[in-house]
Amino acid sequence: MYNKYLITGVSGMLFNDLKHLISDKECLLLDRIVNDKNTVHCDISNITKTNKIVSEFKPDIILNLAAMTDLEICETNKDDCYGSNTIGAINLFNYCKDNDIPYVFISTAGIFGNDKEHYTEEDIPQPLSSYGKSKFFVEEILLNQSYKKFWIFRAGWMMGGGPNIDKKFVEKIMSQIRNGSKELFVVDDKSGVPTFTKDFSNSIIYHINNELPYGLYNMVSNGDASRYDVAKFIVEYLDLDVKVSKVMSDFFEESYFATRPNSEKLINKKLNDLNKNLMSDWVSSLKTYLDLYYK
Questions:
Q1: What are 223-279's pLDDT values in tens digits?
Q2: What does the alpha-carbon distance between residue 266 and residue 37 come to, in Å, rounded to a whole number?
Q3: What domains appear along the chain, each with residue ranges and CATH number?
Q4: 233-240 long-range contacts, Cβ below 8 Å, gap at least 24?
Q5: Whole-angstrom Cα distance, residue 186 to residue 73?
Q6: pLDDT digits (tens, 9 = 90+) for 9-35
């Protein structure tokens, strides 16, 4: 359906899987980290430069994958956090609105607070961190616009890309093991849904090309787990001689000082209701991920 894709945040985990799905399309790839000749340097918080680049390319859809996702960096660099995650994201949406093209925005389970165990699209976000707030503000602004040609896809605990790209929990666990750790201390008081970037990417491209109604969607793997559950599964599945010990979040209060919800468990209610939930369960997805990069 779409032939000219403008995609931001292409050095990240998500684009690593998504790029294979649009290899036959004309794409302009933007990032503030340039790793290859196919990527154009652009920090989307720089509105003037971004608008010039986008206007010259004239895309027929924008996929905004760019985001600051490290919660601690977001807390200590709030201007950068809101500049990229909020102001830059809204500016790209405004371009889409002005030129009547669709917009894809990636949000997060981290927009919720501590009032529930599971969250659907009907629940009201109460973000606790600067990162969560920066994403929620975009959701709120888009959902209150008269222009409705957008999809917001909320992700869970992302995993994907392998050792060179994954900056999240799975690679942090695997890095400790590679460095010789025989005991892992993992929190058991935070829960969510591991979400495989390969499944997430496949779902995005399928849905935008197959008339998924515009709007907001939770789109995480099926099921839920604690951080401890995920680490325990990794060690057992890879048959590693490593002990996994439960701790509470305050064990890491110096390193991970940003406030996190107790539960980031999302349910893909709208996709389920439409019979369009393409996401696998997190256990099978994690097996696939480990088989690809860590076996």
A1: 999 999 999 999 999 999 999 999 999 888 888 899 999 999 999 999 999 999 999
A2: 38
A3: 4-161+194-223+265-280 (3.40.50.720)
A4: 233/283, 233/286, 234/170, 234/173, 234/174, 234/286, 234/290, 235/177, 235/184, 237/286, 237/287, 237/290, 238/290, 238/294, 238/295, 240/177
A5: 21
A6: 999 999 999 999 999 999 999 999 898
